């Protein structure tokens, strides 16, 4: 569970980062550091696949349904506690963005930023341990910012409209595909859109 905690005590706020389907790796360490430097807050990330870190991506895509919301959200809450802050935001990418939407309804987080998180659990991931983000968000939840690619098949327009209808702040980048912000090595990366999305996310977190 890597973290980056500035020296200031006590922290004014904190951030939990939920990685994409590939879990913790140097890319996520960099985002933890980036967010800590930008905000001055402690930031903590956790591994969504504990004990299964060696799974190849094809098997991960097949086995998301084996993840348990209760366990993932408990780890998110533990990461929030590790920041030492009472007011903690949660931010996630892709699959982690889906969990950020779920965490928004958990009562532990003050704000949630979802970078192209699945608004409905894909059929291939459906299981008894996977609740629908939209169902959870119909109840009490913290403010939500969703960063969406207009050409992202993981977040269909009808789902995006439903997310907006429950009060989420939604920003759509019309020509962007899935994963266009957080990994510069992806073919889908769009540098200008990514810079704007990061700016919006940081502004949202600081409100």
How does this structure look, described?
The protein has helices at residues 26-39, 57-63, 69-82, 95-103, 133-137, 157-165, 191-206; strands at 3-4, 14-18, 43-45, 88-93, 111-115, 144-149, 169-173. It has 207 residues and is of the alpha/beta class. The protein has a single domain, classed as Rossmann fold (3-Layer(aba) Sandwich). A seven-stranded mixed beta sheet has the order 1-3-2-4-5-6-7, with helices on both faces. The radius of gyration is 16 Å and the shape is globular.
As an assembly, this protein is: single chain
Strand content: 15-25%
Tell me the count of domains. 1
CATH superfamily: Alpha/Beta hydrolase fold, catalytic domain
Per CATH, the class reads Alpha Beta
Structural class by secondary-structure content: alpha/beta
- Major sheet strand order: 1-3-2-4-5-6-7
Average pLDDT score = 96
| Biggest sheet features | 7 strands, mixed
Query: Uncertain segments of ≥5 residues (pLDDT<50)?
Result: none
Quote the distance from N terminus to C terminus: 26 Å
Q: The CATH topology is what?
A: Rossmann fold
Q: Calculate Rg over CA atoms.
A: 16 Å
Order of helices and strands: EEHEHHEHEHEHEH
Number of strands: 7
Secondary-structure arrangement, i.e. CATH architecture: 3-Layer(aba) Sandwich
């Amino acid at each position: 569970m890597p973290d980056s905690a500035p020296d200031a005590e006590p922290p004014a706020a904190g951030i939990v980062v939920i990685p994409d389907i590939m879990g913790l790796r140097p890319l996520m360490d960099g985002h933890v550091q980036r967010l800590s430097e930008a905000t001055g807050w402690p930031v903590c990330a956790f591994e969504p696949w504990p004990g299964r870190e060696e799974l190849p991506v094809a098997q991960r895509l097949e086995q998301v349904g084996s993840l348990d919301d209760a366990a993932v959200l408990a780890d998110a809450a533990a990461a929030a506690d590790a920041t030492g802050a009472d007011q903690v935001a949660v931010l996630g990418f892709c699959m982690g963005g889906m969990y950020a939407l779920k965490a928004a309804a958990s009562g532990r987080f003050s704000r949630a930023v979802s970078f192209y998180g699945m608004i409905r659990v894909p059929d291939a991931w459906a299981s008894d341990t996977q609740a629908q983000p939209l169902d959870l968000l119909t109840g009490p939840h913290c403010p939500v910012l969703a960063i969406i690619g207009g050409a992202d098949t993981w977040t269909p327009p009808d789902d995006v409209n439903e997310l907006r209808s429950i009060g989420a702040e939604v920003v759509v980048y019309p020509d962007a595909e899935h994963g266009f912000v957080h990994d510069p090595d992806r073919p889908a990366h769009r540098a200008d859109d990514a810079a704007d999305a990061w700016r919006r996310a940081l502004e949202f977190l600081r409100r």
